């Protein structure tokens, strides 16, 4: 199915919306104008507490909450050592990168092994090997991509080849790798002369990151209503994906906003509702909590035309597809527990799990369907990359 990526500005908020051929909202990015995500930022931080029992340290990076760092991550980048030991100690100054945002009372999570992400590859410090996206199939293509990157690996860093790199010409990949290496060396050199708590790398524009990371999707058009963002994306794609240049256009109609043209406000409002109605008349109820996300499925208005078991099975299958869509749209993550309607037929239960697993494969984030518990609850996990939609919109 062809998709459109619509980037619309409403006052000082930028909405990046992925829409399918039926104008259904699939995924949404929300950013304040000129903002950058915390994730990816690099700081010079000071170690305030090393807790051996947790195998972790707390790092002050100049924010209100100290950052958490696992000691499983080793680093040789110290800018001030409090003692002669090679081990991390209180008072040490160290370069770290934010890998998870703050959540509730907890500070962000940082790592000394910085990574720089491009459209095709990720440069990773501390891992001097080449990794490959599991979505890249074919031994010949996997070997070709590894051969391209092999000569760039050093003792300090390696690379992860992203799904975007599939069948991309060698020159474009090499150009990006060389740019990432230059950026990495600049960060290392800059950090040597910066004081503690200094932010030494901001990352890229949040909107550009959203557009860049839309891989494995047939996007037929990229539409912008902001000229600066439009030009920034064109400039980026001119270097990385020149074949996409004809798909990028600037929306100029001043009588009808891009938000209204695609009904984004109404779509966003519905994405915050607890109850989602299915076409059959059944519904799902989505309730995020601190510990997990609870999703309940019921037949509601749907009575079916056949026996009760068939009615329940049909509702569950329809709900599975909608649940895969909703967790991506709402950016729900962590532990997700689904209470489907109980079915006596074991084959129906197995088929439901297979269908759910196939639906979540379309998600850009990693989703794992664990299985069904003895109580008939389906357990899932989804990798966290950002705040859920309801939290992003809480103060908007």
Automatic annotation (TrEMBL):
Its cofactor is Mg(2+). PANTHER family: RIBONUCLEASE, RIBONUCLEASE G. The lineage of its organism: Bacteria, Bacillati, Bacillota, Clostridia, Lachnospirales. GO terms for biological process: rRNA processing. This is Ribonuclease E/G. Gene3D superfamilies: Nucleic acid-binding proteins. CDD domains: S1_RNase_E. InterPro entries: NA-bd_OB-fold, RNA-bd_AU-1/RNase_E/G, RNase_E/G, S1_domain. GO terms for cellular component: cytoplasm. GO terms for molecular function: hydrolase activity; metal ion binding; RNA binding; RNA nuclease activity.
